[in-house]
Amino acid sequence: MQETRIRILDALAERPVAGPDLADRLSVSRAAVWKHIEELRGMGFEIAGGDNGYELCSIPEFGPAIAFGLDAPLDVEYHDSIDSTNRRARGLAAAGRERVVVVADEQTGGRGRLDRTWASPGGGIWLSVLVRPGVPAAHAPVYTLAAAVATTRAVREAGVEASIKWPNDVLVGGQKLAGILTEMEGEADRIGWLVVGIGLNANVDPGEVPAEGVTSLRAERGDVDRRVLTQRLLEEFDHLHRNHGAVLPAWREYADTLGRRVRVETGGRTVEGEAVDIEFPGGLEIDTGNGTVTVAAGDCEHLRPTGE
Ligand code: BTN
Hints:
The protein has 3 domains: 3-58, Orthogonal Bundle (Arc Repressor Mutant, subunit A), CATH 1.10.10; 63-254, 2-Layer Sandwich (BirA Bifunctional Protein, domain 2), CATH 3.30.930; 261-302, SH3 type barrels, CATH 2.30.30. 29% of the residues lie in helices and 31% in strands. The protein has helices at 3-14, 19-26, 30-42, 85-94, 141-157, 217-221, 226-241, 247-254; strands at residues 46-50, 53-58, 75-82, 100-107, 125-131, 163-165, 169-172, 175-187, 190-200, 261-266, 269-279, 283-287, 292-295, 299-303.
């Protein structure tokens, strides 16, 4: 959102302000203030104009309003509907942009891991963060873990006990609430750009997401304020992606996988055993009973404990 509009909202968030006072404060004309107010109303902000001046009555639940009150240095690009926020973010990367988050209410061509499609009906939180971290490509998995931690924290703050299945599914009661798709380009010694796409089934019915073992925030606790949740998620991700040391301890705290029997399909082989720990940048340590194996990537299945 444009800087002047954010400053107008900041001023109105404190108390009602008369048009001429706003114009003075922002060093713009009264006509410009009026135009900005109209634009903001068009975005869904309810702004009353009375004897006391303009008054901010309500903030939209989603949309470009995500930029208002967001405590992270990210430009927000919002779409009511788009094919894929990851595809759009990759396009922005090719155009030289960075520190942008592309957010959509609905995706018509959402993509999941392993070339799967990702159902993305209106009401979800579908977003992709574009950053240029300037670290070796081998470190990329830690950004995916950071996204899983950020999503889990934001969801827990909304009152739902989410946990993480290695490497990056966010679960509630064993059912999938959110998934993460990370894409990147660069040389071995340095990532050029990295796009972290997060799909969170927020205010949608699980039936709208035709896959097995899927849940949504609506199903778990009722609809959420997606603007606040998205802001918290982005703030956490912004903090963690610059503080790698904080990622693994938080991931361990939220992990559903550690201590469980797992089967991981990785590079054409299967590793089975007890998941004992995670190591930087994101490998899972599995005690196979015949020694410990670390798998860097793969599809992980939680197995029932032997004897059940
Ligand atoms: C998975 O398979 O678990 C990962 C799903 C990732 C979906 C998100 S939704 C926002 C972003 N845009 C996409 O097309 N995919 C990711």
